[in-house]
Amino acid sequence: MKKSLFVVGLVSLLVLTGCSTNNNSESKTSNSDTEKVSKTDSAKGYQKLGDKDKKNVKFKVTKDNDKDDQDNELSLTINNKTKKDIKFNLAKFSLMSGSDKKASSEKEGTLTVKAGQKKIIDELFEDVSNDVLNGGNLSIQYLNSDNIVAQVDLGEKAATSATSQPDTDANTSTDTSNQNNTTANTNNDQNANTDQSSNTDNSATQADSNAIVKRADQADDLYRRSNGDFSAGLNWTKVDGGWQGTGEDGGSAFVSDSGDVTAHGNTTTYSTIVNAAQNGGPVKP
After folding, report:
1. What does the record list as coiled-coil region(s) (predicted)?
2. How many CB atoms neighbour CB 58 within 10 A?
3. What is the mean pLDDT of the chain?
């Protein structure tokens, strides 16, 4: 009788131990599956980032010419300076001129850029004509107009006209009257050129006097105040209608002669900057 009770007890103990082991195994499997899902879904879509994180994702556009030198390929470098993994739908990039689409992405699929990582999308746009690049007002848009990730300034710069020196005539005339006539004509031409230069200078001076932003440091000051970013500024170059700013990390901005600031896909008017509760006020003298 005692032997029978011992056997029954031993069997019961083995059954209970087996159930406990199975439950622990199922629990570990469940936890492992949860971790895998968490890691898979950790990357966040760029469009869902806050403004602060978006400012720390830098975009830089470069171009390569086709052999016929008429069309270009544009590549995009993405530098993720945030602490988050970020993903992009490659098919959702567009090359825009204002509200007009000039080119669509040639790529498909999802690109994940990990925190602190830099990736290059080669030939994101193909067969972009020189006319499009020279037309100005170009930007790269992701998904919609709320996500302007880069301003594109890759057009050919207008050549500065050079003033040629008059050729010296080897056969110098000894005729005094001819020399006098030549001198008189030269003086008249010089006077005409001086008058023309004076008119040009006056027009340029008048245009500059009407501008609110006249210097690079003024453009940089308005850019910093409009973005609330007082870290390292941009390098500013005078262009038609305002100042173009570019950073070493690929960031860009535009400050118009009237003081409006365009950066990160948004435009802040000069009046908004002047009347801001913090860091407000007119352009620095």
Report:
1. none
2. 19
3. 75
Q: 180-234: per-residue pLDDT in tens?
A: 555 545 555 555 555 554 554 454 444 466 888 889 888 888 888 877 765 556 7
Q: Give the type of residue at 13.
A: L
Q: Under a CB-based contact definition with an 8 Å cutoff, are residues 270 and 260 in contact?
A: yes
The count of other CB atoms within 10 Å of the CB of residue 220 is 20
d(CA 144, CA 53): 18
Residues 102, 128 contacting (CB under 8 angstroms): yes
pLDDT at 268: 84
User: What is the Cα gyration radius of the chain?
Assistant: 34
**Among the listed ranges 65-79, 196-210, 261-275, which one has the minimum average pLDDT value?**
196-210
Percent of the chain with pLDDT over 70: 62
Contact assessment for residue 80 and residue 88, using Cβ atoms and an 8 Å cutoff: no
Least confident of 124-133, 159-168, 224-233: 159-168
Q: Point out which residues pair with 75 in neighbouring strands.
A: 62
Separation between Cα atoms, residue 62 and residue 107, nearest integer Å: 16
Question: How far is the C-alpha of 275 from the C-alpha of 282, rounded, in Å?
Answer: 8
Q: Which residue has the higher pLDDT, 232 or 122?
A: 122
Tokens 């994940």, located at residue: 112
So what's the pLDDT on residue 119?
Answer: 96
Round to whole Å and give the CA distance between 63 and 92. 19
For residue 85, the SS3 value is: coil
Angle at 138 (CA atoms; ends 135, 141), nearest 5 degrees = 155
Distance CA 51, CA 53 (A): 6
Q: How many CB atoms lie within 10 A of CB 244?
A: 19
CB 90 within 8 A of CB 111: yes
